[in-house]
Amino acid sequence: MKPPKDTLQDSIARQRDELAGMLHEPLQRAALACSRGWGVRERLNAALAEILRGMPYCRFLYALGTDAVQVSDNVSHEGLMEKDFGRDRSDRPYMSEVVPSKDFLLSNAYISLRARRPSLTAIQIVRDAQGQALGFVGADFDLRDLPLTRELYEEPRYWRQIKGDPSIRGTVFHQTRAESVMDRHLDTVISVVEELMVDHGVFHVILHFSSSRAVIWTFDDPYRYRLLDIEELIDPDVCLAYPRRSYPKDAVTPADRIGAILQGLRQLRFMDEMLYLRSGTLNIFNGIVGLTFSCDGSHYLPYDEFLDKEHAFWVSGVGA
Known about the structure:
By secondary structure, this protein is of the alpha+beta class. It is built from nine helices and 14 strands.
């Protein structure tokens, strides 16, 4: 059995652990060097500049008193930024977090004041020879510059429900489905879309039933989507515009189940006059079916779970 995939938070936590391990030692050295020159601005600047030379990915190093007021300049690879001497950083997000017993803290990511970019700060307590806290060394990082593995997070395959606009949900029982052009030709549309996905390299589709259009992505040009209006969706000749492609072996969704999934979307479209499907999506590589209903609630679930559900389930549960 394959081990379970990391959640998004697992992936973030692993990256943070790796980064903390990378930063802890140089900041300990910075704190020790600063303790020897504490109270003398020039000596603090010199100590931080020496440490910074071994941290090419760090934007700024600086020293703070226990009151979070800066007692050194900002030390960067381009030189000193003297205007930050005396700056009160007590209101910055990294100063509101509790430094653990090991005297080191890696903050949560935040948006920097000057560059307006995702950033984070590492804080190391500076202590004197008797162990009394003198202040802190701070190190600022732009997330773009950090030497992390950056392994791509893999979307998990479990059911997720997302509630939509409350104003739409509140009026759902006062509305009825208006027949669209796609509704009148849905059998043809489904046949064309199935052909495109199984034999012509379309790997992701969004069917907008109410507005009678589809958005597709293809293997041959995956970074651009294509919009198909209803005239194209009901014309089987549209398949001639897309090259023949073998169904990919690494697709999670079996080719012989795509037709059943599209038919499932069709049934949800017509299941009820008040609670009905507005749009449906399918991605063959992650095997996820996306559903957005008239109440504006959305569901994302594995194709096999989708196919296992009776449509009475949706009528009774979609508005929840």
